[in-house]
Amino acid sequence: MRCQNVLQFCQKLVRKQPLMPRKEYGIPRGHLNTSNLVALGVGNTLGAGIYILVGGVAKHIAGPAIVVCFLVAALSSVLSGLCYAEFGARVPRSGSAYLYSYVTVGELCAYITGWNLILSLVIAVASVARAWSYTFDSLIGNHISQGLQETFSPHMPSFLAAYPDFVVLGLVLLMTGALVLGARESALVTKVFTGLNLLVLGFIILSGFIKGDLHNWQLMEQDYNLTAPGPSGTYSLGPLGSGGFVPFGFDGILQGAATCFYAFVGFEDIATKGEEAQNPQRSIPLSIMISIFICFLAYFGVSVSLTLMVPYYQIDPESPLPQALLHVGWAPAGHVVAVGTLCALARSLLGVMFFIPQLIYTMAKDGLLFQGLAQTHAHTRTPIVATLVSGNLAGIMALLFEFSDLVVLVSVGTLLAYSLLALSVLVIRYQPDRNLSKSEKTRENIGMKHQRGNSNILKTLCDPMNTSPSQKSGWIVYRCALLLVPLLTALSLVLAQWPRRVFSGDPVCTTVAVLLLVLIAGVTVTIWRQPQGPTPPPFKVPALPVLPLLSIFVNVHLMMQMTTRTWAQFGVWNAIGLAIYFGYGIRHSSAGTTDPQPPASDSQTLDNNIPGDESS
Predict the structure, then answer these.
(1) 361: closest CA among 391, 383, 377?
(2) What is the pLDDT of residues 215-274, one digit of tens each?
(3) CB neighbours (10 Å) of residue 594?
(4) Is CB count within 10 Å lower at the N or C end of the chain?
(5) Cα–Cα distance for residue pair 114/128, rounded to 1 Å
(6) CATH superfamily assigned to domain 29-233+248-427
(7) pLDDT at site 596
(8) Number of helices (H) and strands (E), helices first, in the chain?
């Protein structure tokens, strides 16, 4: 009996949600073309990351090598973007990494994905609002921050911001009120603000090529001595690094890339527009890739321009671009850029705030969060409780925490969610073909004429004769994929903590790294030898299973660059989330309306073939 209870509990953790179409809330179907989706993705992505983050990373983490940080972050985003693109094409309806995980790898994975997406999006709202306040305050001469610092700084704990920013709180609450009243995104407004945003950034890039000095990428110790002598007349570089293009070394590039990943958060919103997109099988993958490419060009150009105009250690981290133009003697242009920055940040803020209530509402309707969060307004049909809760939480975070602390939490939460999405892509491609858009009651014959015996385990794992997947091969992939997660995490940890010992030939570290690589390669080959679904998706991630695994490894390796303080904050958030799931969600889940069924044999017909499926 005890073993049966344990089995039923484990089956609950991996039960899946059928992909049932949900009602649309008065939104015309198929009205967004590729250009609309690109404008949406670029508008939601080009925000605080380019106007504020670039200054802090360049000054304190990477120096001029921030351009390399954005390149690494962009490559990681491309890998995740390809995974989003496949699901966006497979499922031409509104969705997210939470939904994709739920219909693929099961409930617990989906809950962790959704819970961390909520964290990332709420803190993204707080960080963008904080960036808006920095820019506005800089435009009026820093009077607000000076007054608040004099009043509150002596009384603020060390783990909070230097002062509570009431301007930010008012801004977020104002936006929340607009959403509660039923404000909607406009494709025309999105295009206008995105165009204005790109014009401002183009001017900044052009300014850097005109007024920049290549010497700022080649700073030596004597440059610091001449510009910033200490009390004794000399200057020790200390926290300023070692000069040159990479003053903080390779570790600075990796840490900067992990932080810069925040700058690309937003492109995934394109995948949530599946029901509103024209020809989503083509437009969603294309829009995601174009958006990431445009954003990378903008980040690369602005970071080059900024570090050429101003020595990295003199950059103002709170208002880097206007102050850079002031530094080169273009003060009027700095004011114009500040106004453009405010518009771009406001657009980015509203775009992110639209998505959070939808995610909370969906999880509450699925029973994983409290049912009250699914309450909608009688007239506007907006998820009013979810909007109020997310808006107030974001306002409090923006009020009390520094921008830099918020950014790293966004990055770590998003990287985890993207890793779980890549895992979902890896699993779903090797499952028996099924139409995800139909009711779970629709059954199909998996058509396996070749029955494999259990006597030869190696043949079962690596049988090249099968051309169609069976439930058994699907189980093999599922288990191998779950095994790869701790193996990739362990390898990332070894390479992040002891890189010099690994590559210098230390017998212990090198042996551990090689052993992990051999195990990862063996499990990957096992997955590769399994048959894929007979019906290819409209868009598919290339080089399966290598590319999703590479995405997981890169994401986890970037997560390993975070500080202990960040991991402590992240751990507290997930502890709260798991307490809610095991205390409430696991018992109220809409996927648990029937008793768990034991896995079927290969000859049976079934919709889902991942362990713990509960078809009704």
Answers:
(1) 383
(2) 888 887 666 654 444 444 433 445 566 667 888 888 889 899 988 888 888 888 787 776
(3) 10
(4) N
(5) 21
(6) Amino acid/polyamine transporter I (1.20.1740.10)
(7) 40
(8) 24, 0
Sign of CA dihedral 497, 503, 508, 512: positive
pLDDT of 387 above 70: yes
Distance between CA atoms of 614 and 17, rounded to whole angstroms? 9
Taking a C-beta distance cutoff of 8 angstroms, is the pair 261, 76 a contact? yes
> 3-state secondary structure string, 246-305?
CCCHHHHHHHHHHHHHHHHCCHHHHHHHCCCECCHHHHHHHHHHHHHHHHHHHHHHHHHH
Task: Kindly give the interhelix angle for 320-327 and 107-139, rounded to the nearest 10 degrees.
Answer: 30
Structure tokens at 71: 């390149």
Read off the tokens for 91: 């499922």
The predicted structure's pLDDT at residue 615? 32
Task: Copy the structure tokens of residue 295.
Answer: 């954003």
CB atoms within 10 A of CB 395: 23
Q: What is the rounded distance in angstroms from the CA atom of residue 559 to the CA atom of residue 259?
A: 9
Average model confidence (pLDDT) for the chain?
79
Nearest-5° Cα angle at 252, 230 to 246 = 70
Question: What digits encode the pLDDT tens for the residues 328-380?
Answer: 888 888 888 888 888 888 878 877 888 888 889 989 999 999 999 988 877 77
Residue 111 is encoded by which pair of tokens? Answer: 């809950």
Indicate the domain borders of the chain.
29-233+248-427, 454-584
Task: Give buried/exposed letters for 81-111 (b at 16+ CB in 10 A, else e).
Answer: bbbbbbbbbbbbbbbbbbbbbbbbbbbbbbb
